[in-house]
Amino acid sequence: MENLKTTALHELHLNLGAKMVPFAGYEMPVQYPAGVMKEHLHTRAKAGLFDVSHMGQVLLHGDDAALQLETLVPVDVANLPEGRQRYGFFTNENGGILDDIMIANRGDHLFVVVNAACKDADIAHMEKNLQCKVETISGRSLLALQGPASEAVLSQIVPDVKDMRFMDVRIVNSSFGTLWISRSGYTGEDGFEISVEDSQAIKLAEELLASEDVLPIGLGARDSLRLEAGLCLYGNDIDETTSPLEAGLQWAIQKSRRKDGARAGGFPGAEHILGQFDNGVKRQRVGLQPEGRAPMRAGTKLFASENDETAIGEVTSGAFGPTVERPVSMAYVSADHSDTDTVVFGDVRGKRLPARICTLPFTPLNFKR
Amino acid sequence: MKFTEEHEWLRAEGDLVVVGITKYAAEQLGDVVFVELPDADTDVSKGDDVVVIESVKVASDILAPLDGTIVEVNEKLGDEPALVNSDPLDAGWFFKMKLKDASELDSLMDETAYNAMIA
């Protein structure tokens, strides 16, 4: 795999027998010898360790960094308490989504985590538009420890994590150097994301994997876990053409940034996005449950009946859900077909197969609130 | 038993051949979650897409190994697609076909040649 970057954990992945694939310019483990199904189920039952070092880590410095960042995101950053993290997204002038991100308030600066495929564009976007210091972090890896056993395992190394709740962030000193820890993730399970110096990354990963409750987990299971949890994958379920309200992400736009809020608007595409709170949307992201066993994958066209010629929507993510033991999908459908329990038909290899619109997530979210 | 470059095996059974995929192919595919089989009594030409296998992540096509007619399919895979992983060479078979020209079977790889190919 030429011209691909590797993470500081590369050698560990190879030693663990990972199958490596190109992903967002990196050579990443898609699965380990256990396989996607077992890795997925193990994460929900015990704990899984993910290398997410390909994601971008950025610090925003300066007294008004929060207000500066609010010019690019429809999220209340100014009132985000110190030690807390919040989900958000960069929007464009048309009200689409440039990337979805995590924003943490660490006192005198913000810590932002962005998607791997978008990180160069995101950093350029921030450097161009923010009147504050944008510091791209290099030399730090990012691990995710996810699943119900995560707290018990990580607290062996960092006892303080027991006091953290969902979306708390902390900087802690440990025998693996300074760790930046958040209680968050991308699986729908309790868990942590841990930024660690590259030089300590393999040692920390090996220490976590030494627990019999922890298995290494590849991108394959990461995708099926997030899909069952109803979480969007940037590039599939949200992109520059989908608005936050079409995607059902209005919960991430706090009152202060909506009409009549203290700092209403002031982000790219605000008029369009805030208008949708009043006027509604023409299409909606929904959960989709195929009635048969055939998965409906991304790109599957959806129709209102078995013989209609005009599609009313399209699947944006679809796979077999190992926990729910049946196929699961997310799709955009026209608003008049988006009610729960509406039956639509997916075109799978030329056959029209029935599927039912359902609420998300497919599996309960097990966060420690 | 004979093998194709597409990682299928063929085993003669009376005047029919039974077709499945090799252990190597099943391992590469990962956990199989759905198998879509053709209808019985389907005439096929070598290289036609006849079976779709869905693993957790991806859908793959299985091709007709030779010209002929599919006369029976393994209905059990509808309820137990994981048989393709657990027993690829036996209970995980896909279909039985009557070859148009039974002598064509001889043109396929034997086990030694197949093992050399995947080595």
TrEMBL record, chain A:
InterPro entries, alphabetized: GcvT, GcvT/YgfZ/DmdA, GcvT/YgfZ_C, GcvT_C, GCVT_N, TrmE/GcvT-like
Keyword Transferase part of the UniProt annotation: yes
One of the GO biological process terms: glycine catabolic process
Protein EC: 2.1.2.10
Keyword Repeat: no
Entry's Gene Ontology cellular component terms: glycine cleavage complex
Binding site for substrate: 193
Enzyme superclass (EC): transferase
Domain of life: Bacteria
Domain Aminomethyltransferase C-terminal: 283-362
GO molecular function, one term: aminomethyltransferase activity
Pfam families: GCV_T (PF01571), GCV_T_C (PF08669)
Entry keywords, A to Z: Aminotransferase, Transferase
GCVT N-terminal domain: residues covered: 9-256
Chemical reaction(s) catalysed: N(6)-[(R)-S(8)-aminomethyldihydrolipoyl]-L-lysyl-[protein] + (6S)-5,6,7,8-tetrahydrofolate = N(6)-[(R)-dihydrolipoyl]-L-lysyl-[protein] + (6R)-5,10-methylene-5,6,7,8-tetrahydrofolate + NH4(+)
Membership in a protein family: Belongs to the GcvT family.
The protein's name in its UniProt record: aminomethyltransferase
Species of the source: Ahrensia marina
UniProtKB/TrEMBL annotation, chain B:
Pfam families found in the cross-reference section: GCV_H
Cofactor binding summary note: Binds 1 lipoyl cofactor covalently.
Single biological process term from Gene Ontology: protein lipoylation
Keyword list, A-Z: Lipoyl
The protein's role, per its UniProt record: The glycine cleavage system catalyzes the degradation of glycine. The H protein shuttles the methylamine group of glycine from the P protein to the T protein.
Classification via InterPro entries: 2-oxoA_DH_lipoyl-BS (IPR003016), Biotin_lipoyl (IPR000089), GCV_H (IPR002930), GCV_H/Fam206 (IPR033753), GCV_H_sub (IPR017453), Single_hybrid_motif (IPR011053)
Protein name: Glycine cleavage system H protein
Domain Lipoyl-binding, chain residue ranges per copy: 16-98
SUPFAM superfamilies cross-referenced by the UniProt entry: Single hybrid motif
The keyword Zinc belongs to this UniProt entry's keyword annotation: no
Organism: Ahrensia marina
Assembly and binders: The glycine cleavage system is composed of four proteins: P, T, L and H.
Family designation: Belongs to the GcvH family.
Cofactor requirement: (R)-lipoate
Encoding gene (name): gcvH
NCBIfam families xrefs: gcvH, PRK01202.1
GO cellular component, one term: cytosol
N6-lipoyllysine: residues bearing it: 57
